[in-house]
Structures are given as structure tokens and as C-alpha cells.
Amino acid sequence: MTILDSFVSFAKGLPADRLQSVEAALAALMEAYSERYAFTEGEMTELDRRVAEPKPSFADPAEIAELFGKPFSE
After folding, report:
1. Cβ contacts of residue 22 below 8 Å, gap of 6+?
2. Contact at 8 Å (CB) between 64 and 72?
3. Contact 72/61 with Cβ under 8 angstroms?
4. Helix, strand, or coil here: 25?
5. Cα(73)–Cα(39) distance, rounded to whole angstroms?
6. Phi, psi of 51 (to 5 degrees)
7. Are 65 and 72 in contact (CB under 8 A)?
8. Which of 38, 65, 67, 73 lies deepest, with the highest CB count within 10 Å?
9. What is the pLDDT along the chain (74 residues), one digit of tens a residue?
10. Are 70 and 64 in contact (CB under 8 A)?
């Protein structure tokens, strides 16, 4: 039995009120793999360019903390 088979068996045994949240999570996961979130050819070119940058520059840690409200790493 695969993990997916096990999960389906598990989900079938859930009461309706708990199954709704599982279905919502699965729907969100499937949507995340949707083609509408795929990178365009131009975006892929830009990503390749940035990854190949020999001397990359990064945001200042203070700017990251300001943006997210806390330091990125501690």
C-alpha cells in the first residue's frame, strides 16, 4: 500500500467536519502545483542569470528584519 492509499483510507474514516479541513488543505496543495504558478520563460532566464552571478549581493539584514518584522535568521 502506498502512502497515498494509506492517506485515502485515513481520510475516508474522518468525520465530515474534520474532512472539510483536509479537503481544503489538499485543494490548496493541488492549486500550488497549477500551471498558473509556473515561471514564465523570461522569469526562468532571469533566475538563471541571477544564480550564475559570480559576486551576488544580498539584502541588508536590517532591511530583512524591517520587511518581515523580525530577523531572517538568529
Report:
1. 11, 14
2. yes
3. yes
4. helix
5. 27
6. -65, -35
7. yes
8. 65
9. 899 999 999 999 999 999 999 999 999 999 999 999 999 999 999 999 999 999 998 888 899 899 999 887 75
10. no
